[in-house]
Amino acid sequence: MTAPQQHKHSHSGHSHGHSQHGHHHSHHSESSNIALAFWLNFGFALIEIVGGILTNSVAIIADAIHDLGDSLAIGFAWIASKVAAKQPTQRYSYGYRRWSLLSALISGLILLSGSAWVLSEAIPRLWQPQLPHVGGMFALAILGVAVNGVAVLRLRGGKTQNEKVLSWHLLEDVLGWVAVLLGSVLMYFTGWAWLDPALCIGFTLFILLNVLKSLRQTLALFLQVTPDPALQQQISVQLAELDFVKSIHHLHLWSLDGEQHVLTMHVEIATPTELERQLAYKQQIAEVLAPYQLSHTTVEFEISGETCRDAK
Fold first, then answer.
1. Does domain 20-222 correspond to CATH entry 1.10.287.990?
2. What is the distance between the alpha carbons of residues 46 and 151, in angstroms, rounded to a whole number?
């Protein structure tokens, strides 16, 4: 049983070598996307602070402070994405991909805190509205949609949980600037000063719903919940259809970062067989698993009737 396991691992190592370039490219893409988002977000936050003061707009000032919080979260995510690209070590045997997941969790918590602050500033202005400088608001809104829109498009194409959570940071800014744009036009023609805080509250609540959903997914991955129950069931069914498989147990599918998954399992083979036949069995299992592009797989064979050492 030991020899086939070693062969499986060496075979897995061979297949990982083919995908290593793809993983490296993914790490580089994630880092460059986050870097762009950081510099756009931080630079524009400084412009917002000045613009918010000059236009006397609570929506712009609140968004400026929120953007500074976003910049902190994105900066941490940028560092984490670089750490995640490091090669595995004896201590970090699976590599550093879960640092990216940690960053996604912290980013989500920062975004929740920032949104709560935005609401605390905007809600009182509903009862004491002040008409801002609508012309300045309109100009800043056009620039805001353009700058943050570029960053969103880059991050929305990312595959990691880190990039997905950060994209919500920047999507909030895009929607916020759309709200500011529409609000400035309406206030110009109607003089309704209450639109400034009202629109700010509206888009913040909308984004909060999506952030809570992303946080729930991130926490589930942290707790090593199966990232895709349907995928796990599909793999189990396909493997059970192999003629030499009597049963499959201790099948565990979990994710390093929401993108790269790990699979371990015990396979009970129907009858005792020679070593060469077991190696052929492992090759069949490898062919079944190949389309799923799993990051790590571990398969242990058990002979029919053998006591599982992990049985509780």
1. no
2. 17
Q: In angstroms, how far is the first alpha carbon of the chain from the final one?
A: 21
Tokens of 74: 């994105």
Report the C-alpha gap between 65 and 45 in whole angstroms: 7
Question: Which one-letter amino acid corresponds to residue 258?
Answer: G
Q: Say how far apart CA 172 and CA 74 lie, in whole Å.
A: 14
Give pLDDT tens digits for 192-246. Answer: 888 888 877 877 787 788 788 888 888 888 888 888 889 899 999 999 999 888 8
Assigned token pair, 191? 């003089």
Q: How far is it, in rounded angstroms, from Cα 48 to Cα 42?
A: 10
Q: Are 161 and 258 in contact (CB under 8 A)?
A: yes
Distances (CA, A) of 144 to 2, 157, 179, 195: 60, 20, 11, 18
Q: In whole angstroms, how far apart are CA 266 and each of 4, 148, 248, 303?
A: 13, 48, 6, 10
Strand pairing partners for 245? 269
> Going by DSSP bridges, is the β-strand pair 261-269/245-255 parallel, antiparallel, or unpaired?
antiparallel
DSSP letters, 199-211, are: HHHHHHHHHHHHH
Q: For residue 267, list its beta bridge partners.
A: 248, 301
Domain residue ranges in the chain: 20-222, 229-303
Read off the pLDDT band of 63 (50, 70, 90): confident
CATH class, domain 229-303, is: alpha beta
Q: How far apart are CA 190 and CA 17, in angstroms?
A: 64
Q: How many CB atoms lie within 10 A of CB 272?
A: 11
Q: Which residue has the tokens 């595959």?
A: 159
Mutual angle of helices 58-84 and 97-125, in 10-degree steps? 170
